[in-house]
Please model this.
Amino acid sequence: MRRLIHHSGSSSYRGRWSPDGESIVFASNRDGSSEIYSADADGGNVVRLTRDPGSANAPDWAAGG
Model:
């Protein structure tokens, strides 16, 4: 197993692979609060998906992808 997602000084957790194996969603506190992000399978192209004033920390894929 190798670490794909790393951001200095933060935690990334609860990663879930997409059904096609092309990307991953995960929770991270890299921007100061727990939010959901996606990334390509190689760990590149990280995109923040949520802006929750509370805490977003349970990413998952919908049945349709």
